[in-house]
Design goal:
Layout (H helix, E strand, L loop, with lengths): L4 H8 L19 H5 L11 E8 L1 H4 L10 H4 L3 H11 L9 H4 L2 H7 L2 E5 L1 H5 L7 E7 L4 E5 L14 H12 L5 H12 L8 H6 L6
Parallel strand pairs: 1-2
Antiparallel strand pairs: 1-3, 3-4
Helix pairs in contact: 5-7
Length: 209
């Protein structure tokens, strides 16, 4: 008997499908936990003066831009992602648009944020994404914290089904309407019963003019 679509996807990603239970996780995460810890960048309401993120080469090497000037550069800029969180409390689809990235507020916030290689973090190895952050407020107070090694959305702390669906809907915003999103999500959850990948390809195409 041939493999179904789900089995073919798993095999293509070198996942052992001989067991009864499977969990799928991202193959590579560059800055997930680094941008997860700074949720407390909500301190912006109290006046952020400077932010510095310390990390090893695993996180810093792929980052190309200290200041992002457009949405594409923002995908390779830690200061841009942290600035998004400081301003909008999230770094989602709406934030990765030129209109937002080029805004005066976003450009100003990025210039308050810098990164620095940390030899001590580097010594801990590359098995996990490690970082720490220091935030200095305008009133002189300083806050420091480390990123959670068991980060949200990772193998040891996976997203809930509801959270996964919310991420799908966020990615489909302004592209698929509610009914189209519902159909896509339903087919993804029932992927074992789909015989032709073209069904999913059709699901992600909007019927709108």
């Amino acid at each position: 008997m041939g493999m179904n679509l789900a089995e073919k996807i798993l095999m293509a990603h070198h996942v052992d499908i001989s067991g009864r239970y499977l969990a799928i996780h991202p193959e590579q995460v560059l800055v997930h936990d680094a941008t997860g810890t700074p949720v407390f960048l909500q301190l912006e309401a109290m006046g952020i003066k400077k932010v510095k993120l310390y990390a090893g080469s695993k996180i810093l090497n792929p980052i190309r831009y200290s200041i992002a000037e457009n949405h594409l550069q923002a995908k390779f800029s830690l200061p841009a992602e942290l600035a998004m969180i400081a301003i909008n409390r999230k770094a989602g689809k709406a934030e990765f648009k030129d209109l937002f990235v080029k805004s005066e507020e976003m450009q100003a916030m990025q210039r308050k944020i810098s990164t620095e290689h940390d030899p001590e973090i580097e010594k801990l190895g590359f098995d996990k994404m490690r970082s720490r952050i220091t935030i200095r407020l305008k009133d002189g107070r300083t806050f420091t914290d480390k990123a959670e090694e068991i980060y949200r959305g990772g193998p040891d702390n996976p997203l809930t089904d509801k959270e996964l669906e919310e991420k799908v809907r966020a990615c489909c915003e302004d592209i698929l309407d509610d009914s189209e999103q519902n159909q896509l999500i339903e087919n993804i959850w029932n992927i074992n019963n789909i015989s032709d990948v073209r069904i999913l390809a059709e699901n992600i195409q909007s019927g709108k003019e």
